[in-house]
TrEMBL record, chain A:
This is ArsA family ATPase. PANTHER family: ARSENICAL PUMP-DRIVING ATPASE ARSENITE-TRANSLOCATING ATPASE, ATPASE GET3. It comes from the Archaea. InterPro entries: ArsA/GET3_ATPase-like (IPR025723), ATPase_ArsA/GET3 (IPR016300), P-loop_NTPase (IPR027417). Residues 4-302 form the ArsA/GET3 Anion-transporting ATPase-like domain.
UniProtKB/TrEMBL annotation, chain B:
This is Uncharacterized protein. Pfam families: DUF7990 (PF25952).
Length: 324, 98
């Protein structure tokens, strides 16, 4: 299967648990694995009882498993600082203030978080060499879909900018009649160069997501979650990113046959409605239902994670990346 | 000898006049026009890069901010042109000398 595996779904359905369990399953099978959390509300640290940061760190007690948590806040600040440094090298002191204002504004726009997150996870895919498999524990459905839809959209935007820039430089060159020095020159224009770099970056991201990534959605057996999953599948198909499979989490456990108290009747009733919804999922949604994980009374970590991992019928073998 | 000198001086004056005439009638308005058009296109580029300067949120301004260190000259003249541009008609009209 593809080297990059994404787990998505509605908030609170257990994406982190499932992705950590899957990462552990891969590691146990001898596949060098990295689990990456792109959800600003991180919980990978909680699952493994260990604090993770911006660079991959091995998970204590599990061989072949590392984890990494992306903090979009840090990424935005780093991006801002990097541009500021270049700014002070290149721009005259009188203009720095003016441009600084613009710069700060750009980093407070609503898209900045998403862009920063996107940049970072593309970087992770690009430096995926030491790992055979990278598991992405993504943010809840909406923002993930936007994140994965970005490359194509941004690529065409950058192309448009490059076209405009080329046109104006071309005219400036033409305006330099006789021995006049043109105000801008096409050759070695740093702006075009940076735009080109950006374009290649988006091309890479789009290619890696289409060629080397598999997507799975986690859902709970309740109506809201099933509905949202249906919408997410439609959205992702529209973006040419097929959902490979579904994982049902937090299923109600069945009581013993001889029990007939109020609790047992409640559980049986609950299981019946859940089974109806799962039948609907099996019947009318196109990706197959790959796992049905019962709810646990205790936090899923440690040995419990291993138990959950066994219930996941998601293949662990990792192919070599074809695009990256 | 005197005649040759006078012819030379005459030719020099003629050359200067002709060059001036050509510059004033053809080359100057031409490059001015092209340059203004180029500036207009550059303004459109800057606006597409930094629409948030006008309060329009843009999905790419996070990325285009990377261009700012290289756009000093453009940024300054963009702002200046925005200040003294009243109407599109006036801007286009500046390119003609009646």
């Amino acid at each position: 299967m593809e080297p990059f595996v994404f787990f998505g779904g509605k908030g609170g359905v257990g994406k982190t648990t499932v992705s950590c369990a899957y990462a552990r399953k891969c590691a146990d099978a001898g596949v060098e694995t990295l689990v990456v959390s792109t959800d600003p509300a991180h919980s990978v640290s909680d699952v493994f009882d260990q604090q993770f940061g911006d660079s991959p760190e091995p998970v204590a007690g599990i061989d072949g498993l590392s984890a990494l948590e992306i903090d979009p806040d840090d990424e935005v600040t780093a991006h801002l600082d990097e541009i500021r440094t270049r700014l002070s090298d290149q721009v005259s002191a009188s203009m720095v203030n003016e441009i600084n204002k613009q710069l700060e504004m750009a980093h407070q726009t609503p898209g900045a978080y998403e862009s920063a997150l996107f940049d970072r996870f593309v970087d992770v895919m690009r430096d995926s060499d030491p790992y055979d498999r990278i598991v992405f524990d993504t943010a809840p459905t909406g923002s993930t879909l936007r994140l994965l839809g970005l490359p194509e959209f941004l690529e065409s935007w950058v192309e448009r900018l490059m076209y405009k820039r080329r046109q104006s430089i071309d005219l400036f060159e033409k305006a330099a009649i006789g021995n006049n020095e043109p105000r801008r020159v096409m050759d070695g224009d740093p702006v075009l160069q940076r735009l080109q770099e950006r374009k290649e970056f988006f091309e890479f991201a789009g290619g890696a997501l289409r060629e080397d990534a598999a997507f799975f959605l986690v859902l709970n057996p309740d109506q809201l979650s099933v509905n949202e999953t249906e919408r997410a599948i439609a959205d992702m198909n529209q973006q040419d990113l097929g959902v490979r499979g579904l994982i049902a989490n937090k299923l109600t456990p069945a009581p013993d046959d001889d029990e007939d108290g109020r609790g047992a009747r409640y559980l049986r009733d609950r299981i019946e409605t859940e089974q109806q919804r799962l039948d609907h999922v099996r019947g009318s949604l196109s990706p197959p239902l790959l796992a049905e994980i019962e709810t646990r009374t205790r936090e899923v970590k440690g040995d419990l994670l291993g138990a959950v991992a066994e219930e996941l019928a998601v293949p662990v073998d990792a192919e070599e990346p074809t695009f990256v | 000898m005197e005649l040759a000198e006078r012819i030379d001086r005459y030719l020099d004056t003629l050359d200067e006049w002709l060059r001036g005439l050509y510059h004033g009638m053809i080359s100057h308005p031409a490059y001015e026009k092209i340059e203004k058009e180029a500036e207009d296109l550059e303004d459109a580029f800057m606006l597409a890069c930094f629409p948030d300067a006008f309060g329009i949120p843009s999905p790419v301004s996070y990325y285009t901010a990377e261009l700012l260190p290289y756009l000093e000259a453009e940024f300054e003249s963009w702002e200046r042109r925005l200040w003294d541009r009243n109407t599109m008609l006036e801007r286009k009209g500046q390119q003609y000398h009646f």
